[in-house]
C-alpha cells in the first residue's frame, strides 16, 4: 500500500489512503517547488512526518501496527536536464519502530531538484 505526496502541495494520490497534509508549500518565480514543510501522514498502520526542499528531505516513519508489514518513505527527485534520483528511508518495523532519514538528490555528487514526488508506503 502506498500514498504519494506531491512536492508542491498537500495533495495525496490515494494508493493506500494515507492522509497527508502540508502546512507550507512554496514555489520560486518560475513555479518550481522550493519547500514542502512540514508534511505529515497518519494511518492506522503507520505514520510519518518530515520537511522537504530542493536539496534535502528529512523526517521519520513509524510502524503502528503488528501486521507483518513495514512502513517506508520514498522520494523521486527530478532535476534539470532530465536528472532523476530515487531515495528510500530505512524500513520501520515491527510495531513501534521509528526510523529517521535524511536524503539528498543525486548519488555521490548532489544537485538541487526542480521537483519531487514523495510517497509513504506499507511494504
Strand segment tally: 11
N-to-C order of helices and strands: EEEEEEEEEEE
Low-confidence stretches: 1-24
Rounded average pLDDT: 80
Tally the helices: what do you get? Answer: 0
Tell me the Rg in angstroms: 14 Å
Q: Tell me the helix content.
A: under 10%
Strand percentage, roughly? over 45%
- Largest sheet descriptor: 6 strands, antiparallel
End-to-end C-alpha gap: 7 Å
- Molecular shape: elongated
Class from secondary-structure proportions: mainly beta
What does this 3D model show about the protein?
This protein has 123 residues and is mainly beta. The strands form 2 sheets. Strands 3, 4, 5, 6, 7 and 10 form a 6-stranded antiparallel sheet that branches. It has a 5-stranded antiparallel sheet with strand order 2-1-11-8-9, with no helix packed on it. Strand 1 (2-6) and strand 2 (12-14) form a beta hairpin. The chain has strands at 2-6, 12-14, 19-22, 25-27, 33-43, 46-53, 57-63, 71-78, 84-88, 98-103, 115-122. The radius of gyration is 14 Å and the shape is elongated.
Layout of helices and strands:
Elements: E1 2-6, E2 12-14, E3 19-22, E4 25-27, E5 33-43, E6 46-53, E7 57-63, E8 71-78, E9 84-88, E10 98-103, E11 115-122
Amino acid at each position: 500500500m502506498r500514498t504519494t505526496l506531491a512536492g508542491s502541495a498537500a495533495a495525496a494520490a490515494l494508493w493506500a489512503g494515507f492522509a497527508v497534509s502540508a502546512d507550507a508549500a512554496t514555489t520560486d518565480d518560475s513555479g518550481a517547488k522550493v519547500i514542502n514543510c512540514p508534511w505529515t501522514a497518519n494511518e492506522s498502520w503507520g505514520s510519518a512526518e518530515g520537511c522537504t526542499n530542493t536539496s534535502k528531505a528529512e523526517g521519520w516513519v513509524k510502524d503502528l501496527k503488528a501486521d507483518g508489514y513495514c512502513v517506508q518513505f520514498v522520494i523521486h527527485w527530478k532535476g534539470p536536464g532530465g536528472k532523476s534520483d530515487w531515495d528510500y528511508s530505512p524500513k520501520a518495523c515491527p510495531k513501534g519502530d521509528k526510523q529517521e532519514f535524511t536524503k539528498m538528490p543525486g548519488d555521490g555528487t548532489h544537485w538541487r531538484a526542480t521537483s519531487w514526488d514523495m510517497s509513504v508506503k506499507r511494504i
